[in-house]
Amino acid sequence: MEKIAFFDTKPYDRIYFDKLNKNFEIEYFESRLRPESARLAEGCRAVCAFVNDDISAKTVQTLANLGVEVIAMRCAGYNNVALKEAQGKMKVVRVPAYSPYAVAEHAMGMILMLNRKLHKAYIRTRDFNFSLNGLIGFDLHGKTAGVIGTGKIGRAFIDICRGFGMEVIANDPFPAENSGINYVSREEIFQRSDIISLHCPLTEDTKYIINAQALSLMKPETLIVNTSRGKLIDSEALLTALNEKRIGGAALDVYEEETDLFFEDNSDRIVTDEILSLLVSRPNVLITSHQAFLTREALQSIAEITLQNLQDYFAGRELKYEIKYKSGRG
Ligand code: NAI
Fold first, then answer.
1. Structure confidence by residue, pLDDT tens digits, 240-250
2. Is 290 a known active-site residue?
3. Quick one: three-class SS letters along the chain?
4. CATH number of 100-287, picked from 3.40.50.800, 3.40.50.720, 1.10.10.350, 3.30.70.360
């Protein structure tokens, strides 16, 4: 049986892999995959990694030296993989889609919570404080949702917005055909939207897509939700806009410096990330810990596709979900 080194695993990751795996010996490591931990993969021809693993050139080289032939990402995003370095040394596969609904529904859940201040109401009523002061929100019906990135998750989110009776405008360099989506410029999204939801990947073009300039175009009530990647938002500029009451609020499932914090219990540590600390303290900021994917359906699908990717590799079959390095960009 081939042995696979699974990095950055939590108890909830193991449930579906243990249930579905029949062909491999899985060795679970809690440690992230990074240059220092890569040698744990000794004796394995495959490793399985996740969103915040550091699969930079040094990690890839160490894995290659150990004889690792394939990296199976159990996620969609792969901005943390040095594809150029991996080229010719090992294959990289991923799970391109597992449950777009999981992420889209979480994004709408965050919007509802932030807009209707449910996070505050929940705490108040637990203390028998039944006051409504300060809890005014706005109807989503009739408002404008601006969606950046209309792939699988973006389109699922658009369907939800339409169900709420919202007008949807979107931006994507590759518009979805026959979707009836009203595509507009980025600027128009920033200027017109009451809620803005980010569903594009992190690339050189999308890094800090929400920056000081973008924020300056928004309405003072606009709510931003980011369930994609932290670096889509310049957090410092976001904090400034919030402090100056130039936007209505932010719901963040991802954060640009999340790598050493998210997915972990840091409650007994002094967290020295000042921007995150200030964001957490704002009443109109809602943060979840890269949780949007976390449904039973998504976890099952992730395990099924990852195991299939690995079986295909070891059987010498074509790799349906291989990621290849292409012309200077992943
Ligand atoms: P997808 O590949 O189906 O869609 C991405 C869309 O973004 C495509 O239509 C693409 O054309 C568009 N896009 C690319 N560059 C753009 C740009 N410069 N401006 C606007 N749009 C652009 O991907 P999917 O499955 O919808 O996932 C979207 C993102 O969600 C992923 O890249 C990942 O970062 C994030 N994600 C977050 C999860 C979480 O738990 N928070 C879980 C899964 C994915």
1. 999 999 999 99
2. yes
3. CEEEEECCCCHHHHHHHHHHCCCEEEEECCCCCCCCCHHHHCCCCEEEECCCCCECHHHHHHHHHHCCCEEEECCCCCCCECHHHHCCCCEEECCCCCCHHHHHHHHHHHHHHHHHCHHHHHHHHHCCCCCCCCCCCCCCCCCEEEEECCCHHHHHHHHHHHHCCCEEEEECCCCCCCCCCEECCHHHHHHHCCEEEECCCCCCCCCCCECHHHHHHCCCCCEEEECCCHHHECHHHHHHHHHCCCCCEEEECCCCCCCCCCCCCCCCCCCCCHHHHHHHHCCCEEECCCCCCCCHHHHHHHHHHHHHHHHHHHCCCCCCCECCCECCEC
4. 3.40.50.720
